[in-house]
Amino acid sequence: MGEYDGGQQSDTAADTRRRDDLARHGCRVIRFWNNDVTENLEGVSETIQSAAGGPRPHPIPLRPQRAEREQLAGIEFAPAKINLALHVVGRRADGYHLLDSLVVFARVGDVVRAEAAEALALEVTGPFAHALADEADNLVLRAARLLAEAHGVTPGARLALEKHLPVASGIGGGSADAAAALRLLARLWNLPAPAAEIALALGADVPVCLAGAAARMGGIGEHLAPAPGLPACGLLLVNPGVAVATPAVFRTRGGAFSAPLDLPQGWNDAASMAADLAHMGNDLEAPAVALAPAIGEVLATLRRLPGALLARMSGSGATCYALFATPAEAEGIAAVVARPGWWAWGGALRTDA
Question: Which member of 110, 205, 276, 283 is catalytic?
Answer without folding.
Answer: 205
